[in-house]
## 1
Amino acid sequence: MDIRDGDGVTSTALLTDQYELTMLAAALADDSAHRRCTFEVFARRLPHGRRYGVVAGTGRVLDALEHFQFGEAELAVVARFLPAETVEWLRDYRFTGDIDGYAEGELYFPGSPVLSVRGSFAECVVLETLVLSILNHDSAIASAAARMVSASGGRRMIEMGSRRTHELAAPSSARAAYLAGFDATSNLEAVRRYGVPGAGTSAHAFTLLHAGTAVGGADGVGEHSGADGEHEAAAFRSQVEALGIGTTLLVDTYDITRGVATAIEVAGPELGGVRLDSGDLGVLARQVRDQLDGLGATKTRIVVSGDLDEYAIAALRAEPVDVYGVGTSLVTGSGAPTAGMVYKLVEVDGVPVAKRSSHKESRGGTKKAVRLSRDTGTIVEEIVYPAAGPAPASNGYEARELLVPLVRGGKPVEDLPTLSDSRDHVAHGLISLPWEGLKLSAGEPAVPTTFAN
Amino acid sequence: MDIRDGDGVTSTALLTDQYELTMLAAALADDSAHRRCTFEVFARRLPHGRRYGVVAGTGRVLDALEHFQFGEAELAVVARFLPAETVEWLRDYRFTGDIDGYAEGELYFPGSPVLSVRGSFAECVVLETLVLSILNHDSAIASAAARMVSASGGRRMIEMGSRRTHELAAPSSARAAYLAGFDATSNLEAVRRYGVPGAGTSAHAFTLLHAGTAVGGADGVGEHSGADGEHEAAAFRSQVEALGIGTTLLVDTYDITRGVATAIEVAGPELGGVRLDSGDLGVLARQVRDQLDGLGATKTRIVVSGDLDEYAIAALRAEPVDVYGVGTSLVTGSGAPTAGMVYKLVEVDGVPVAKRSSHKESRGGTKKAVRLSRDTGTIVEEIVYPAAGPAPASNGYEARELLVPLVRGGKPVEDLPTLSDSRDHVAHGLISLPWEGLKLSAGEPAVPTTFAN
């Protein structure tokens, strides 16, 4: 169970579907393996009713690519079903091709060629699963997160969904949420690995811990089991002493009004925040705000959590909420836990190829894309066009090429954007959507995509 | 980007929410950290309309627990926000308590105490996120997978969803699917790490690779770009030569009838299988079966894939399908990507504790559970009762205790079930459900749970 970059075992080569390697074996045997190919990643559609998607995971794809090598341990596994020549070929595997893609944090729409991988069939085909796993996961989370950030109206957003997703997906979810505009995460591995700011409050367990037995308060006065308020006061006092006055106290273990009174009694009106994790959060937030203000705690923030999604966040917009803590709905993509992107062979030795079976047609040929915008910055159209041809006419709009170089000759290009750069890119992208693009209701993609021939 | 057990860096200690460690700091400071506690894991409800859940991930929790230690790298991260005494305490951290739980593969219902973690507050509280992440993910996948296995009526099931989930969640998904009755996986890391049988067919890319340029066939006769059938024949010939006659050919890149004819022409009637990945799979399966039989390929299997979920699988039950390949819906829990289990403090120094805020009440006290069955094996009831009290009356039914020892004094007990044992346990559990429990339609939990006082 390893979780870290570093000096340990680091191969990503088995995060792969078996069929990629059996196709490789057949292609090596018939000599088609060395044909020059382009594979493109795109989503046929957005999740139901979504108006845009956010490309996320590109940086992680590049990291994973660097570790896509077959050591002895990996070779031993694939040798069980592959011919010896294929195993030997994999022993020397390093991706040597080129990759272009939408910048991490770019918005995307149905058919947007978000990644273009070029090289021999052999070196490209084996990357399918790894590339898709990363982009599909991270883009699903970032796309949901961006809607939540829009809905929050600029309030502070904390990602706290680690417990509702795979333990090793959790740091990636936190990264994707931060990319999309969240301010902080509860996940410590995301803090360590990606530098996402950490945050946290307290759990009901901490208050309950102080029930049932005698408690020595900070003032040395013993309190005994009995009224809930006493346990709560002991827990709050302990938390404030250990973590300082800026901490956030969880006030809904028992009665909330009593909890708020106790919190301010213990901490004073300079208390950093109180958290509400249950009940009608809108009604409660107003009551608690009034109560806090009445107690002189006018700066004490109200943190709300508990089954929040973008709709619940939007519904609380008129309420005196300062911070949203979002868990389950974020890490599960708010109903769309995967972005549904595919990795398709579109060109072989310069010739476009495409399958033609029903309902899953794809467009052949290596593509590029431009996004056209008004002077105001508002996007009006995305045009996907053959890479071999000229850029389409911009008709007086600003035209921006969407595919940027990511890998050349197997090596990541220099000066790739940081996570912070990509976060700015998302924020800028959301501002540039037509106004209806930020509506939470189900609708069509916010920007029409044209496929030029 | 590490993915393996082994000699490398292996700490799971940062797969944790920050608040667990700040609560720890406060509890160490006020001396409540050493109180004896029980934390229980349970689901308040099943996902909408589900009739049962499958406990999965228990084995992975025990592995992760062994690696829950703070090395210098982990300590450096937590030292940024924790007092020095807490950091020192974490340096020596090893879980020394006891864990009981439902056996991996056991069915569960709302309120089932699927894991019971006992020890000091300090040593238990820090495990919350890691335990929940694993159980919530794996149980969600296994619960969806079990419904698909039931719906398949005993046909072969291949998990192929890696590309639609986080790259490191994929092997765990494959493990959970296998646990629940799937036969094989496409994911090579799951093959390596968990011994799940591997499987795979071929992608459209392999056929398309053979389009557009001259192809040297196995017989030395060059074929040139032109008709689809020629490319397809070249691709099929290559695959059969490399992988043998038992391989499965993907016949829907172009025209399916033509594809099937080409497949048998190239491979002969002993061909292992053909795969259909698009279109109306029921209609196509019948047509293709007739065509194959007419060509003498009566043993050639029909593999279907493409957006299958339990409902689509059930709808194909009357059709001549031999193998189902399931991807997206499996790894996303078929609409329920997390099991929604929680980790709650229920007892402190022998005294039951419970929060009482609205809508999220929990039941205090350490619990056990028995399941009552008829002589026929059919479950009639689950009874959750106080661990301190006597087992409830079984009223003439067979009574089976559901919580089994998993960890004693911090060490896993001996003779823990293997993945194969747990797989048998699921199969047995599904047989023991009342008949309506296997219905796919939305309904109530198949077994009533009684909470005895």
## 2
Amino acid sequence: MKDTDMITDRDNALFEAGIKLGALYHQFTGSPVNLKTVKSLEMAIQESISVQPFARDITVSIDREAITSKVNGEFGYCELEGRMLDVRITICYKTIMADVSLAYDLELDYPLMKIDKVYSSNQS
Amino acid sequence: MKDTDMITDRDNALFEAGIKLGALYHQFTGSPVNLKTVKSLEMAIQESISVQPFARDITVSIDREAITSKVNGEFGYCELEGRMLDVRITICYKTIMADVSLAYDLELDYPLMKIDKVYSSNQS
Amino acid sequence: MKDTDMITDRDNALFEAGIKLGALYHQFTGSPVNLKTVKSLEMAIQESISVQPFARDITVSIDREAITSKVNGEFGYCELEGRMLDVRITICYKTIMADVSLAYDLELDYPLMKIDKVYSSNQS
Amino acid sequence: MKDTDMITDRDNALFEAGIKLGALYHQFTGSPVNLKTVKSLEMAIQESISVQPFARDITVSIDREAITSKVNGEFGYCELEGRMLDVRITICYKTIMADVSLAYDLELDYPLMKIDKVYSSNQS
């Protein structure tokens, strides 16, 4: 067996980090929202994902300006879109911590998920 | 054109009521939840659906006992299931009010959506 | 008890119709899709909703032009949005049939759900 | 900067793998399904996730026995649950391939996502 074949804590930390972002995105986008209700939606997303395995820390922020520009004039609400989300998650898997994020990438015109930092759970 | 073909406020009130329950159910079931986070999830569901057209009033209650019995021993959370939900919605469409609900029906073993009351928006 | 308080087959037909559209919308919007996969997504949505109570007939059509214009240049796919959907559902509740639809309303800039026709299940 | 801080292709492969499984799970669980429609749902899930970035290969299999045991006697369908899913995904991120899976773990009573193999994209 080659070295590359061993699955490490680091591998699992990144894998778990991806799961949380994919889950969050596809569970909550589409939710009806407006400026009056955005706070409770942020809170619920944050708390919901925080109960999942290996999630150490999570902050969820929804772009108020994007909501304002998307709210339907007739009906007074819009749907939560991926590009409105700014999410930061820290995963701790045994010896390894991983910071990952979801944020709208203007250049790619895409809600981009990426790895920000990987480090030992001893340093932090 | 026969009388039956005319679409009434009452028809629309019931149609809108169904939309809200179907939307809520399929948007939010599957959300990770435990006893510490259930309150924020209830609040978010309630506020999210309240912004939709013709929704006058809504209360969402998630069954704590069902959560307790479903929480995974290893991981400390479960997913929101339809049968954990007790939802009451009042729709107001012009002259008509409709009270509808979603609640677990033990006999049918089914999260049942039903019409509870239809009445004039003048009486209420 | 006044006449208005009695819940009729017609009420239930419209209520059930609303449930199906709300369910479909919030279950499937957000699904990754492109022109190569749109057919299987249409089929799955159609068949999935067809198993629900009182659904007699359903057709689901996803707007290819909308997909083409939304597909991300870098990644080659987009998400299913409500405004890409054209859905026709016929509900049969005992004596009553109801035809309802979901289609993008250009003027309202909104994926509009509406009642198209209500009629006796004997005439059809 | 320490070695551990550099983000590698391997990190990204695992991160992307997790995203796909989390997304798939929370997008499609809850879908109404029975034995007649299970095939089209499998196909749609498979094709939908296949369009996402870095997804090289994916197979989705839904447990027919689990559906049979869960189908509601009165209504003839059930909802897709995570524990009904057996999913295998191969991610290719530049030089690295990762095989991951979602399958019901009987002992944990949990739909477990895990890393099966990580290897160079040259060997395969």
